[in-house]
Design brief:
This protein is an alpha/beta fold and about 190 residues long. The chain is about 35% helix and about 20% strand. Strand 3, helix 3 and strand 4 form a beta-alpha-beta unit. The longest helix is centred in the C-terminal third of the chain and has 15 residues.
């Protein structure tokens, strides 16, 4: 048996990025098996903050941003300059189709209704939007070959700007969605 703390933020939002990174760092200091962290950072700013806090700890950080066209036709939410900054400190950036919406969103936008993946996403959002994002980016990174399946990682997410949720999970490829395992919640918004 182990007693561990969960950090609860008052509500979701970008105001908790620094505190969330602190909670993740505290958790890493009590773990010797986590080697990788995924962070959902559309602009890359939160990924850089995470790097600054964890520098020298030997943790691989992978930034997951929105796919091209998410905010506008042929637009990227992350600048080339930021991608270069991240690469210079060893952070890879993944542009990928969202695992829980992707092309299915195009179908539901045109014809209405819902996709079975909408049910999965909404179920995870019952915990927090950031926990849904953490699961989603872990599948995206596994499918892109950036992280191995079957190895515990930390996944960090939020809603809109900043991050407010972090989990330890074992990622899977999309074809094995229901084998994804959550092990610990490090932090999440209470409301």
């Amino acid at each position: 048996m182990a007693r561990k703390f969960i950090t609860y933020f008052e509500k979701e939002g970008e105001n908790y990025t620094d505190e969330l990174i602190g909670a993740v760092k505290d958790r890493l200091e009590n773990s010797n098996h986590i080697k990788r962290i995924l962070i959902a950072s559309a602009t890359g700013e939160s990924a850089l903050k995470l790097y600054d806090a964890l520098e020298g700890m030997g943790i691989e950080i992978i930034n997951v941003t929105h796919h091209m066209g998410f905010s506008g036709k042929n637009e990227s939410d992350i600048s080339e300059e930021m991608i270069e900054k991240l690469e210079n400190v060893g952070i890879k950036t993944l542009f990928g189709l969202h695992a829980f919406s992707g092309a299915a969103r195009g179908v539901t936008n045109k014809y209405g209704g819902y996709s079975p993946l909408d049910v999965v996403a909404d179920t995870l959002r019952m915990f927090s939007h950031g926990i849904k994002v953490g699961a989603e980016i872990s599948i995206m990174a596994a499918d892109a070959g950036l992280i191995p399946v079957g190895e515990e990682i930390i996944a960090i997410g939020g809603r809109g700007h900043g991050v407010d949720s972090a989990v330890i999970l074992t990622p899977v490829n999309a074809k094995d969605l229901f084998k994804l395992e959550f092990h610990e919640i490090i932090a999440m918004p209470r409301d």
